[in-house]
Structure formats: C-alpha cells, structure tokens
Design goal:
Helix 1 crosses helix 11, helix 3 packs parallel to helix 4 and helix 4 runs parallel beside helix 9. This protein folds into three domains: 169 residues, Rossmann fold (3-Layer(aba) Sandwich), CATH 3.40.50.720; 159 residues, Dihydrodipicolinate Reductase, domain 2, CATH 3.30.360; 85 residues, 2-Layer Sandwich (Alpha-Beta Plaits). The protein has 13 helices and 18 strands. It is an alpha/beta fold and 438 residues long. The N and C termini lie far apart (52 Å). The structure holds NADP nicotinamide-adenine-dinucleotide phosphate. The site of NADP nicotinamide-adenine-dinucleotide phosphate has 24 residues, from helix 1.
C-alpha cells in the first residue's frame, strides 16, 4: 500500500531524496511504496535540474504538513525556524518526521522528542550526523547493550578538507579556505563550519544518544580551525601527528547526573590513531564502549546522495513499522527506534579535566630558555613528553626561536598555571599556539 511523503525543502538533500523516491528500481521493495505527494520550496518558479512534476511544488510548508495525503513529513529545509515549528506541527498532527537538521535537533531535541513521545510518533534523524554514515541508529540500537566510554569524531567535512590540504600542501588556512569556497566545499559564510559550531551541534546529538541524556548545547566548549597556523600543522607532522578538528564526548566517572566532558577543538592525533587516516570531506566516528571495545564508522559525511541515503533509510524504517502495525501514527513506539532519554547528564568543569597538550612558544634564541620553560612546567606539576626547538622560519624576527612542547596528560588547571608562569618569563615573546593532543 502506498505511503504519502511530504518534503519540506528540495535543495541538495531534498533533491537527493526525491531522486531516490522517483527511481525505486533495484532498491528495497518498500521504496516503491513511498509516494512523493507534495514538496515545499521557497521559490516554486525557479528552474530545477530534477525532473519532478511541477504540480507537486508549493511555497507553503504548512500546507505540506497539513495535507491529508502526506503521512510522513521529511524536513530538509534547514535553519531553526520555521523548521522547528513545522516539525512540532507534524507531530501534533500525529505524523512521523524524518529530519537532517542538526541545528534544530541540537537545540530543540528534547522538546521535539517529548512531543513525539507524547503523541506516539517517530522523529528519525540519521542524516543529521555524518551524512551517509549510519551512526544514529547504531548508537540507539546495535550498541544499546554497551556502556559508552567515549565518542570521538571527525564530523565536519569542510574543516577536514581544509586541514587535509594544509597538511598535504603546507598551505595557509586562509588560502585553502578561499579555494574550498571556489570549489564548493565551503559555504560563502563558512563560520558554522570553521568555528566548530556545526561539529558542536552534531556532538550534542551524539552525546544525547550515547549517554541517554542531553547537555546544554551552548555550554559545549567549542574552538574551530580559523586561528590554526600552517606552521603548527607542519610541526605536528614532524613530531608524528596530524591535526584534526575533533568532537569528543567522554564519560568522566559515574554519578547522577552523569558527568561528561564534551568539546570540539583542533587536536593533534598520533599518525597511527584510527581517525588520523580520515582525509578530505570524509567523516568518521570512533565509539569506545564496554564491552564491545572500539568501533569505527567511516564514510561520506555530506552531499546529496549520501545524505539522501540516510534520510530514505529513516523513511523506510517508518514505512516498515506501518507494515507491521498498520499505522504510522499513534502506533506503539519501538523503544529502540524512538528517541529516548533515561538519564540526566551534566558537563564537568573543564579546568578539572585531564589532557595532553601541544604548545608553541616564541622566545629569544638564548641559552637556558628551554631549562627555564621546563622549570615552569615542573613547578606546576606538568610532566613534559618532548620539547623541541625549531629553526627560525622565513618571516620570523632575528634572534627569535620557536619552541614546541608536548606534555603528558595533565589537569587543565595545572597546565594553565604553568602557561601563566611561562608567559611571565622575560625570554618568552608569546605563547603562539596551544592545542590539545591525544
Ligand atoms: N547538504 C548536505 O550535504 C547536508 C548533509 C547533512 C545534513 N544536511 C542538513 O539538511 C538540511 C538541508 O540542507 P541542504 O544542503 O539540502 O539545504 P539547501 O540546499 O539550502 O536547501 C534548502 C531547501 O529548503 C527550501 N526552503 C528553505 N527555507 C524554506 C522556507 N521557509 N519555505 C519553503 N522552503 C524553504 C529551499 O527552497 P528553494 O529551493 O526555493 O531555495 C531549498 O529547496 C539542513 O538542515 C542541513 O544542515 C545537509
């Protein structure tokens, strides 16, 4: 029996979804049951590459949600409003929703999940994190027996593309960004990607699914790659590391609420780390859990085809449920498919967490400087793994040296105490870079 689908948005993702629905041959037989009934766009008159019946298009997304022939609402328009209100409107009408909108789910996920649970409808969001990579349903279902210890991922393709090129070519951040924008790998306004906000949205969603409770999105410590310098990428490579924008959600013990350390920042990964080999626009998520161990999910993190693959899989899950229960609304929810929250979580005080660090200092090129820096670290209880002086590069002032320190794991507060003492040394011109290290 046919199932009516309403699309909110026919951009990159929406067009990818429509392309699958209108060509079901060779796919799961349920795809042929899905019928595109109505599509909302901003401008129905605009010419589009997809051969879609123009009568399906309209500029009123509420009319798509309210259309009685639409049984499943697919929100792929993006932005916070009206997307949030449209999702809630669909839920209120008892219609299940599939969305790719990480910004809405990261900020309003609890409100949406509560409304969906009260109404007994599914809201599925496989495409919201990692594009075509299955990670949402695996966290909800396949890994459900585990105690999750850490979820870490490269979950923004734009920044990974930029970092890969900086590493391969020794190029400056600004030059690669400009090229990425020209090639369509970065938006005209790249802030959400390069400042880390997109990755923070996604790790907020993964946190809620991995640990069964959400954390405040705006409280996630977020640092992007926009201030990263080519020389830090180069020095990291010489020391055996690659720099990646990592999003991490880590359990910090037990308790109620469950203490978590959730953050996004450029990170030095040892070259043999599983995430170090993820290049270009690809994404990967590494889940460390008890008892399964380490499981890694890898693949294309964005783009029409990969993202539509995830969206249509969610639609199929709902269609499959209807085959069993006879209805898409008011059905008894499969608890593993439905979003559920069973625990309170809280973010720990960042100054108390422990990490390894990379620090680059610009100093006078004088005897004894390295010793005095080492003393500052030692006095604060920071143990050093390596300390290296690099030769002055082109453009450096004469008589200046660059010293790179990699610390062992240390509490953030102690590390900051050492940095304050180092900054006060007469020989130290500036603390030029400070990055986390795995
Ligand atoms: N692109 C990716 O690779 C990717 C990957 C994962 C997740 N996502 C998420 O998927 C969502 C869609 O992304 P996208 O790249 O497909 O966006 P997009 O290319 O900008 O497309 C947005 C679509 O929504 C329509 N639209 C926007 N506001 C509307 C409104 N108020 N009323 C009616 N229609 C409206 C636009 O209409 P017009 O066509 O008339 O402009 C367009 O068709 C976002 O939440 C995004 O974060 C995207």
């Amino acid at each position: 029996m046919a199932i009516g689908v309403g699309l909110l948005g026919l951009g990159t993702v929406g067009a990818g979804v429509a392309a699958i629905l209108i060509e079901p041959q060779g796919r799961h037989p349920l795809v042929a049951e899905l019928q595109l009934r109505r599509v909302a766009v901003r401008d129905p008159a605009r010419s589009r590459s997809l051969a879609l019946n123009p009568a399906l298009l309209c500029s009123d997304p509420e009319a798509v949600v309210d259309d009685p022939s639409v049984e499943i609402v697919v929100e792929v328009m993006g932005g916070l409003e009206p997307a949030r209100s449209l999702i809630l409107r669909a839920i209120a009408a008892g219609k299940p929703v599939v969305t790719a909108n990480k910004a809405v789910i990261a900020r309003h996920g609890e409100e949406i999940a509560a409304a969906a649970a009260a109404k007994g409808v599914y809201v599925l969001l496989e495409a919201a994190v990692g594009g075509g990579i299955p990670i949402i349903e695996p966290l909800k279902q396949s890994l459900g027996a585990n105690r999750i210890l850490r979820v870490s991922g490269i979950i923004n393709g734009t920044t990974n593309y930029i970092l890969s090129r900086m590493a391969d070519e020794g190029a400056a951040y600004g030059d690669v960004l400009a090229d990425a924008q020209r090639l369509g790998y970065a938006e005209a306004d790249p802030a959400a990607d390069v400042e880390g906000h997109d990755a923070a949205d996604k790790i907020a969603i993964l946190t809620a699914l991995a640990y069964g409770g959400s954390v405040a999105r705006e409280a996630i410590a977020t640092e992007g790659i926009d201030r990263l310098q080519a020389r830090d990428v180069a020095y990291a490579a010489r020391l055996g590391y690659v720099v990646k924008l990592l999003a991490v959600a880590q359990r910090e013990g037990e308790g109620d609420p469950l203490p978590l350390d959730v953050r996004v920042h450029p990170t030095l990964l040892p070259k043999d780390h599983p995430l170090a080999g993820v290049h270009g626009v690809n994404n990967a998520i590494l889940v460390e859990a008890d008892p399964v161990g380490r499981v890694m999910f890898y693949g294309p993190g964005a783009g029409a085809g990969p993202t539509a693959s995830a969206v249509v899989a969610d639609i199929l899950n709902i269609a499959g449920t209807r085959q069993v229960t006879g209805t898409t609304s008011g059905a008894p929810l499969d608890p593993l498919l439905a979003a559920s929250s069973w625990r309170r979580c809280s973010l720990v005080d960042g100054s108390q967490t422990c990490h390894r660090n990379y620090v680059r200092l610009q100093t006078c090129d004088e005897a004894g400087v390295i010793g005095r820096i080492g003393t500052c670290f030692g006095s604060a209880g920071v143990s050093i793994q390596s300390i290296v002086q690099f030769e002055a590069s082109l453009g450096d002032q004469e008589g200046e040296a660059e010293i790179v320190v990699i610390t062992h794991e240390v509490q953030e507060a102690r590390f900051r105490q050492a940095l304050a003492a180092i900054a006060a040394l007469a020989e130290v011109r500036t603390i030029a870079a400070c990055l986390r290290t795995l």
